[in-house]
Every structure is written in structure tokens, then in C-alpha cells.
Specification:
elongated; 2 strands; mainly alpha; two-stranded antiparallel sheet; 7 helices
Length: 163
């Protein structure tokens, strides 16, 4: 596949997160894009990426939602879990560059207005106080138990038997 654009890799990576259990709707995909990339591409770029990836047979439409095809899932299995997002995107772009079209596939045409509506719905849900499941959890600060229990530097008293 040539040329490979950044939006293509971002779309596949976000679809792997959003459509893990069931086909993802557009708002779920936008949420996963924000989680993976911290910036949401424009509606036109996403619409073109959907058309390209579906024409290559990597994105499929199931029950009104979108999911990865078996070829795209094989690409995602080859990703290392310990890599950060930028490294995963780079490796995914390498896989996409070496991917060759297998058969004819229908392109999924999503109008940019639909994507803009999904982006607005995501931004509205981001402003509410509700819990967003796909967002990162804040990291907890680790305090060693020795410092917690022995805060003045005194040794613990020995256990005496009461006789």
C-alpha cells in the first residue's frame, strides 16, 4: 500500500481499541483516537482514511458499527505491548507500507458531517462530569511501607508475651 498516511495508522490503532468487544460506533472511534493520539484529525481526513482502509479490506462495517478485518487484526497482533503510541504508529505504518491488496473490497463512504457530529458529541461528553471509560486513569504515587510505618526512624517495639 503506497502512500501511507498518518491518519490511516491512527484509524487502525484506534479501531483496535474501540472495537475490541463489539463493532464500534463513530463516537467510540473518535474517543479512541483522542486516547491514542491526543489530537483528532479533521472530518475530511478521517473520511478519506475510512475509504482507503475499507477499499484495502482492513476496515469492515458490521451491524452499523466498524471493526478491523482479519488482516488488520493480524497486523495488530504483531505490535509490541510495551511500545508507546508513537512507536506503535510507526510499526503499523511499516506494516501498511508492505501490505498488498487482496481481492476487491467495497469502500465505506462516511460523510464528513457524520464525523463532525461524532467529534462534537465526544467533546460534549468530555466536558461533562461523567466517567469516560476509555481515558487513562491517573497514576498513583507509591509510598514505601517502611516510610509509612516507621516515620520517625525509631525501630518497632518487640513483641512481648504477657505471662
Amino acid at each position: 500500500m503506497y502512500p501511507v498516511q498518518d491518519v490511516d495508522a491512527i484509524l487502525l490503532l484506534s479501531l483496535s481499541v474501540a472495537a475490541k468487544r463489539r463493532p464500534a460506533d463513530l463516537t467510540g472511534i473518535i474517543t479512541a483516537i483522542d486516547l491514542a493520539h491526543d489530537a483528532i484529525p479533521s472530518g475530511n481526513k478521517l473520511s478519506d482514511a475510512f475509504a482507503r482502509m475499507s477499499a484495502y479490506g482492513l476496515v469492515i462495517e458490521i451491524e452499523g458499527g466498524y471493526a478491523l478485518s482479519s488482516d488488520a487484526q493480524k497486523m495488530m497482533v504483531n505490535q509490541r505491548k510495551k511500545d508507546d503510541t508513537e512507536k506503535k504508529l510507526f510499526r503499523l505504518k511499516e506494516h501498511l507500507a508492505g501490505y498488498h491488496l487482496k481481492g476487491e473490497h467495497a469502500a465505506i463512504q462516511i460523510h464528513p458531517d457524520q464525523l463532525l457530529a461524532a467529534i462534537k458529541a465526544f467533546q460534549a461528553s468530555k466536558k461533562t462530569a461523567g466517567k469516560n471509560v476509555l481515558r487513562d486513569k491517573p497514576k498513583t504515587v507509591w509510598i514505601p511501607t517502611k516510610e509509612l510505618a516507621n516515620f520517625k526512624g525509631k525501630p518497632f517495639p518487640s513483641k512481648r508475651r504477657k505471662g
